[in-house]
Amino acid sequence: MPDTPRSTYRVQVRPGFDLDATAELADYLSALGVTHLYTAPLLTATPGSPHGYDVVDPRAVNPELGGEAGRRRLVRALRAAGLGLVVDIVPNHAGVARPEANPAWWDVLRRGRDSAYAHWFDIDWDRGRLLLPVLADAPDALDDLKLVDGELRYHEHRFPVADGTGDGTPRQVHDRQHYELVNWRRGDAELTYRRFFAVSDLAGLRVEDAAVFDATHAEILRWVDAGDVDGIRVDHPDGLRDPAGYLARLRAAAPESWLVVEKILEYGEDLPDWPVDGTTGYDALAAVSGLFVDPDAEPDFTALDGRLTGRHTSWQDLTHGTKLEAATRLLAAELTRLAAFVPELPREQVRAALAELAACFPVYRGYPPEGARHLAAARSEAGRRRPDLTGVLDAVTARLRDPDHELAARFPQLTGAVMAKGVEDTAYYRWSRFVALNEVGGSPAHFGVPPAELHRFATARQVRWPASMTTLSTHDTKRGEDVRARLAVLSEIPGRWAERVTDWMSRAPLADPALAHLLWQTAVGAWPVERDRLHGYAEKAAREASVSTSWADPDPAFEHEMHALVDRMYDDPELHAQITAFADEITPAGWSNSLGQKLVQLTMPGVPDTYQGTELWENSLVDPDNRRPVDFAVRRKTLARLDAGWRPAVAADGAAKLLVVSRTLRLRRDRPELFAGYRPVPAHGPAGAHAVAFDRGGAVAVATRLPLRLARSGGWRDTTLSLPVHECTDLFTGRVYSGSELLLDDLLSTYPVALLAPTDSVEAAA
């Protein structure tokens, strides 16, 4: 097995699609051309967990997935098919929704500070009992508490009873425990343990403690030592107290493993100089998807957004507001804990200063040496917005600049959570100017990526992070890659879109026009999408936006109106026909974008990941929609037809995408030397701006961008591409080309993409 994968395929291993079901994919994945299976977390998670990120016992494989025996069967199946394994690990937090399922948390609840596991969790014991936000929002909620089999029970919740405290009424027993059950609404404001973002069911772990690291990583590292694991994906390193120290310890424990981190980089931000191979690919996603968005459309969409919503708000001001909301509302408990580290100043002023700095922080969190620059930028902007806090801001910032101060160690954990909750989970649902850009790792204010910018990005990756992952879809993306690709078409027809959506919104109004614009874009991007899926998306989007309704306080009247709008899309014959006609109008160009962005992602520097099912057309929306079961039988049959010589039309149920994926991955697997460099290949002629091409060291990728504008301007005409070899073969059509100049009208006559390789290398691989 190579130390670095040449490609990966992500599978959401879960109850209902367990390790044995995953093992059955080994032959298909090998035929597809991937070199490594990349799994969701495999350790024991909360019973019934659909994702595995709520690990409750790091000592064993999840029995609901097949346990250790299932893991061994999977490894055997992969090795027999010539595949490696990359596993996802979750060092930042543990699942505590079901205390009885988490032995360490159960013991902490039972024994308090005296528990052998008390140091595992980031608990502020000095503030009193450990608060657990599980009670209903009612003054007499504790009256429902019961004593059963020596445990306290609150409806379906179970809690331990400390030794010698079990006599008396349930309320009396409760009052003697190391924990206190409180109203669920108090969670965001008063909790005494660090959480994952604002999720009270996920308690932060202290993996900076060597003993905690060893205990929580022993099983994973046992697999590594046994040669069963070739790579590790680290979930959410920004949540850790000391990510650099943690990654150094992990690298020392797994020196030969491919190691990537789920580090979200803001536009223009570089990955810190960590002992890792790169990120999980959101930076690549933003660059590649933006390539197919027309930057010239930005003024039109800005004007449309203003007309539809009746206001003009900058992205900077919007995100400042949503981040400040996240800091002061969702993460109020964390803010209070940090403010306590500046006891000599008024508590509320310190809280306000910290919240303002977090809201103004330009990246998820700062790391040396760039962290000082980011803190300075945050201080400057915070001072501009809150001149009344100048003295407190100066005092707080001085402590944040002191690496030995506890506040400096903990504040970065807050800024990352504020960015994630305030931007990804709120602003992305409020800012509906052009939602194709509202993606994890993206920058909605940065409208499109010109080819020259893509080439600069890829060249830098080849030099600095050649083994970093690339991706277009994950379980965390806000919409699937093909939905984004179709939405990108709207940037080529801003006037047409403005006409359509303005008419639809006037005929079917919604009290929240920004949300309505998001829903109409989502509908045409995913159409035809099942009604129940669009209803589910609408509800999640509206509650995440927290404008007209929210998770904490749903507004039944507004949500009824919103669901009625979704129903009209299906039940109003004229409206349904218009949506269908418009989606049909933009779909062919969307297919072109899908193939183009997929080819660029699979061939650019880095290790390309294919998210489960996305080798065919796929119209997933946000989680949990993107975790739906995948029909692998259809994909097997389609791949077999392609291998038998079938060359499908672009519109043939996504088979053309599977052709692109399989042929590209096979070439990367079989001829890695053709992907050892990076050089832009310019197109010459009247349509040169519509081609993006690059030479990876023998393999040349060619993709079409802005296909509608290309068609309107007369097509490729006399546009040519200069090739580095005199004879090459297009792996998608099998056509052989001779000479150093190729007419793009000829090369791209069958598909809007081409992958060229020296003919002798193609024959050798075949």
TrEMBL record:
Gene3D superfamilies listed in its UniProt record: Glycosidases (3.20.20.80), Maltooligosyl trehalose synthase, domain 2 (3.30.1590.10), Maltooligosyl trehalose synthase, domain 3 (1.10.150.200), Maltooligosyl trehalose synthase, domain 4 (1.10.10.470)
Biological processes annotated in GO: alpha-glucan catabolic process; trehalose biosynthetic process
GO function term, MF aspect, one: (1,4)-alpha-D-glucan 1-alpha-D-glucosylmutase activity
Pfam family name, one: Alpha-amylase
Domain Glycosyl hydrolase family 13 catalytic: 12-643
NCBIfam families assigned: trehalose_TreY
PANTHER family: ALPHA-AMYLASE FAMILY MEMBER (PTHR10357), MALTOOLIGOSYL TREHALOSE SYNTHASE-RELATED (PTHR10357:SF216)
Name the UniProt record assigns to this protein: Maltooligosyl trehalose synthase
Organism: Micromonospora sediminicola
